[in-house]
What does this fold into?
Amino acid sequence: MTQNGYALQSAAAPQWWNATPLPYFSMVVPMYNEEDSVQELYAGLTRNLAAFGKPYEIIFIDDGSRDKTHEKLTAIAAADAHVLVIKLRRNFGQTPALAAGFDHARGDVIIAMDGDLQHDPDEMPKFVAKIDEGFDVVSGWRERRVDGLVFRRIPSKCANWLIRKISGVEIHDFGTTFKAYRREVIEHLNLYGDSHRFIPALAAMAGATIAEVPIRNINAPYRPSNYGFGRTFRVMLDLLTIKFLNSYLTRPIHLFGKIGLVALALSLIGFVFLLVRKIMGVSLMGSHGPLLVLVAMTFMMSLIFFATGLLAELISRVYFESQHKAVYTVREIRHQATSWRGRPGRPQLGRQGLVIEESADQAVIAPASIGQPATTPA
It folds into this structure.
């Protein structure tokens, strides 16, 4: 079913969806054992969101907290219709918690931040100002870090440098959760693993414009950070995925084929050398046994990489075509004096008209012939 153009899947969704007017701002805050910061954080968010003068909602995601975080959030939600509390069944991690918030957010502008008060809600106007300038993603930049040098600043600086070089997105701080997004950018993204820090890179793949604003770096007042070297190593591994998605998602044969060609060239060079030595009467097994095995293995590796590339091409096509995903994203559609922002989905043009498929249970029907007005299903 759909409400106001969005697909709703849960049975309770219609009641929640219609409880308040559609907001312009959606605040998404993952929480994990943050009972001491709940009230102070809520007060800061409410003060700033109300000052914008536009409808808003605050979505708290309780990521399996074991303290009284959920009880305090429930009390706030009971007293304030702007607040929605999502309780996950267990601690899934920051990325799944943010994904749950993004999935339930209704606003045109979505702002995300951590729930431990290491981000100052009073800096939200900086992000909104950049969004109003026309940027799609606004990322916070902890310009002056106050956390530990060895365990935080050095690993963070190295990770940010690597992400910049691999993704091509020139921002200083990928790690902070404090970011603002336009809805149409977030709707294109699926988050897995620990990929929330790569949202700017993923958004850039879809052609999003990205800005950066300096923010204060505040030590979480009520609990120590759980950041360590282990997370740095996970970031390094995630970078491989981001690089592949950024460069080869729609053409994986270009990656595996290049490696296969190099392996094939090396095997051919070795084969020619061994063939010449054989013609000269040299015993290959006696004089070049290891090289003979290496040439055979390199040739087999080239075949494996070619086959992997072809299989990846087939999987890529299944991924895009089975879900009607487009290999492009649309920023704006304009006709005469009217314009529409781009939406996820690929238009399907048939004899009866144009159908834009945005989800499995939702569609917008456009003119059946040029010159007729567009219609939408009742």
About this structure: Confidence is low (pLDDT under 50) at residues 1-11, 349-378.
